[in-house]
Design brief:
Elements (H helix, E strand, L loop, with lengths): L1 H12 L10 H5 L4 E7 L6 E3 L8 H4 L4 H15 L2 H13 L14 H8 L24 E15 L2 E14 L5 E10 H4 L6 H6 L2 H21 L48
Parallel strand pairs: 1-3, 2-3
Antiparallel strand pairs: 3-4, 4-5
């Protein structure tokens, strides 16, 4: 039921003119996509709990709300790394795509990272990469996931996690977008179960569990939207001899349970202690 309520909220909050559906005909013109996920520099995690909600004033006693938020934010930062937040969205979206073109011909993420000089350190670069570099690897399009803001907030003593950003797919030559989906998941607005910030301060894994579940639901919707219903099963016909398309031969592992904070061994590094 938790996943259903997450998904219903996601659909409700991300509709509108800012979105662009992926057409089957547009996807048929893609031969070799590259998948990239990144977090903007000031994206978070943020604590907007104590400064924006006076309901905790008595519990804080002499502690200033600004300082209380600073301490909670430090706990949120240690709960899950920015790299894992970013990569979980990419990995869990990609693993749910069908074994057909163009997804089976997607660039190896390690080659993409090396070419863009990203993911070589724990922190994901904030600035958009130079996507033209990917044409050297044969890429003709990019599927990009961007997280713009995430953390915890509170309204009238009801606290919870939130996350917003967008995903898009575009052709590298000309940057013409063929798919765009803004997203906003807000557990406070949804009326989900209260996530006590004082308990999170003592056990930051509570935030980690909530955030990873949110990421998994967002990934589920993205994967669904990247399978346009007007496209024939199997995708376009195989390329002719001499075409530059190559299969990665990937194998899709079983997806993790949405409430399980740990990914498969070797999938993603554990966050820093």
């Amino acid at each position: 039921m938790a996943r259903i309520s997450f998904l219903a909220l996601l659909v409700l909050l991300t509709g509108g003119c800012a979105s662009q559906r992926l057409a089957g005909a547009a996807l048929d013109r893609v031969s070799r996509p590259a998948f990239i996920s990144r977090i903007e520099l000031e994206a978070g995690p943020h604590s907007l709990v104590f400064r924006e909600d006076s309901a905790y004033k008595d519990k804080l006693k002499k502690l200033e709300p600004k300082e209380a938020d600073r301490r909670l934010q430090a706990k949120l930062t240690g709960a899950v790394s920015r790299f894992e937040v970013s990569e979980r969205l990419r990995v869990n979206t990609f693993r749910q795509l069908p074994e057909e073109r163009p997804w089976v011909d997607a660039l190896d993420p390690a080659r993409v990272a090396t070419m863009l000089e990203s993911f070589l350190v724990e922190e994901v670069p904030a600035n958009a990469p130079d996507y033209d570099l990917l044409t050297r690897l044969g890429a003709d399009s990019v599927v990009e996931f961007v997280i713009q803001d995430y953390g915890m907030r509170s309204v009238k003593g009801h606290s919870g996690a939130y996350m917003r950003g967008y995903a898009r797919m575009f052709k590298i030559n000309g940057r013409a977008e063929i798919w765009r989906r803004p997203f906003l998941v807000d557990r406070v607005a949804e009326g989900a179960e209260h996530m006590d910030p004082f308990k999170v301060g003592k056990d930051p894994s509570l935030f980690r569990h909530e955030l990873t579940a949110m990421l998994d639901v967002v990934a589920e919707q993205f994967a669904e939207e990247l399978r346009p219903p007007d496209r024939k099963p199997g995708g376009p016909p195989p390329p002719e001899m001499g075409d530059s398309v190559h299969s990665t031969g990937r194998e899709l592992p079983a997806p993790p349970k949405p409430t399980d904070p740990e990914l498969a061994p070797g999938e993603l590094p554990d966050p820093d202690p």
